[in-house]
Amino acid sequence: MLAALGDGNAFLHSEAGRASARRLVEVATKRPAEECLRLLTGLLERAMRGSIERSDHEAIALVDDAYAAMQGPLNRTLFNPEYLAGARTHQVAAGESLDRIAAHYRKHQGIKVDAMTLGLFNRISDPTKLRRGQILKIPVQPISTVLEKRSYLMAMYCGGVIFRLYWVGHGKEDRTPETTFTIGLKQERPDWHIDGRVIPYGHPDNILGDYFVKFEHHSFQGYGAHGTPEPQTIGTMASRGCIRMRDEDIRDFFAIVPRGTQVHVRATQGPGER
């Protein structure tokens, strides 16, 4: 059923294709959690490859429904501290914090996690409630992000499984380059450096919002992800090149995306597209 959908998202743009995709979602949710996630990741990857416009309401609804169907299996696997496939464990010592534990694994094990990455995978919403002797799950499979420009979808992966999916906007006149960035500095309450000026956080002309995640690259400078005071531009090319996200989405992305992980920006065309 998955292979029959093809390699791109043409199925999103026909009634028959959407019906086939919805049958696949129904079948997937009846399978074991690991298989369900593999199937729905495959479906969403195909949905990302090709055009989706803001007016494609039925296509958008199907993508949202498929992603929603992943949440139960994700909570039983990746976001379950007792599910240890692709992970190792860490026993919390006296005086340790999520920040300190994440820094240890980044420095000594090369495992790229931040504090709230660990919080997500261990169901910890309040890092101050960490207990001595608590067993934490440390994901060792690589975490990465893929942005498909034509569909305006950005996915976060752990290993081969999508665990976050966001609708985004990007650069007008195709200014966002197709390349691989690395997640760098994560700034809360950021000032905006633009055209030789510094517009402070909170100024009406500062469009970055509350969070900025810097994308580092040896050639392309000044790119990153941030919120927007113009949510209607999500799903469009409207920025100066950065990735625009809804306020709740940039808050989530800022918290959990690990520094040093990769962001792959692509513009995959669907079958028959130019």
Core attributes:
globular; 274 residues; 7 helices; 3 domains; L,D-transpeptidase catalytic domain-like; Membrane-bound Lytic Murein Transglycosylase D, Chain A; alpha+beta; 8-stranded mixed beta barrel; single chain; two-stranded antiparallel sheet
At a glance:
The chain is α+β, with helices and mostly antiparallel strands and 274 residues long.
Describe this structure as you would to a colleague.
The chain is an alpha+beta fold and 274 residues long. It has 3 domains: 3-76; 87-139, LysM domain (Membrane-bound Lytic Murein Transglycosylase D, Chain A); 143-266, L,D-transpeptidase catalytic domain-like (Beta Barrel), CATH 2.40.440. The chain is 28% helix and 25% strand. The chain contains 7 helices and 13 strands. The protein has helices spanning 15-28, 33-48, 57-69, 71-76, 98-109, 115-121, 247-256, and strands at residues 87-91, 135-139, 143-148, 153-158, 161-171, 180-188, 192-194, 197-199, 211-216, 223-226, 237-239, 243-245, 262-266. The chain has an 8-stranded mixed beta barrel with strand order 3-4-5-12-10-9-6-13. The protein has a two-stranded antiparallel sheet with strand order 1-2. The protein has a two-stranded antiparallel sheet with strand order 7-8. Strand 9 and strand 10 form a beta hairpin. Helix 1 runs antiparallel to helix 2, helix 1 (15-28) packs parallel to helix 3 (57-69) and helix 2 (33-48) runs antiparallel to helix 3. The longest helix has 16 residues, at 33-48. The model has no long low-confidence stretch (mean pLDDT 95).
- Indicate the CATH class of the largest domain: Mainly Beta
The run of helices and strands is: HHHHEHHEEEEEEEEEEEHE
CATH superfamily of the largest domain: L,D-transpeptidase catalytic domain-like
Beta-strand percentage?
25-35%
How much is the average pLDDT? 95
Low-confidence stretches: none
Spatial extent as radius of gyration: 19 Å
Q: Judging from the principal axes of the Cα atoms, what is the shape?
A: globular
Strand order, biggest sheet? 3-4-5-12-10-9-6-13
What's the domain count? 3
